[in-house]
Amino acid sequence: MTTRPRLETNKRQAVGLLAFVLFAVMAAVFLAADLGSAQGFPGEGSITASIGYAMFNLDGGAYAAEGFLVAFIVIAVVLDAALDAAVMLARREEDSEAFLPLRADGSGEDEEGKGGDR
Questions:
Q1: Distances from the Cα of 109 to the Cαs of 93, 94, 99, 118, in angstroms?
Q2: Higher pLDDT pick, 46 / 80
Q3: pTM above 0.85, yes or no
Q4: What are 38-68's pLDDT values in tens digits?
Q5: Coil, strand or helix: which one is 115?
Q6: CA atoms of 51 and 64, how far apart (whole Å)
Q7: Which of 24, 40, 50, 59 shows the greatest Cβ crowding within 10 Å of its Cβ?
Q8: Could you report the per-residue pLDDT of 20-30, keeping only the tens digit for each?
Q9: If DSSP codes are grouped into helix, strand and coil, which group holds residue 109?
Q10: Which residues contact 62 (CB under 8 A, 6 or more apart)?
Q11: How far apart (Å, rounded) are the C-alpha atoms in residues 56 and 36?
């Protein structure tokens, strides 16, 4: 005979209810906000082309893009540093193992007298 599922009454329900209320409040604020109309750059011209011209110190961009260029380079340096850190953390050392288990006698020492967890 199967039993009816019972509703758990613990802290998880309170946390879930709090998350739902927070979502509802944030959705209401977002939907009630007056965002106005979208603003773009006036006239003909491409901001992307202007940034490209500014990168190579050429004249020809429709807009002054030096301010955008600084932000572009800062973001590129930060992303490059994050990628380098991720590769460094993901790389394994070739000579050592990540974990050496305890010996059968429980001593935790291997043959060279090194500890079990390096």
A1: 21, 21, 12, 11
A2: 80
A3: no
A4: 787 777 888 888 888 888 888 888 888 877 8
A5: strand
A6: 8
A7: 50
A8: 999 999 999 99
A9: strand
A10: 41, 43, 44, 45, 46, 47, 49, 50
A11: 36
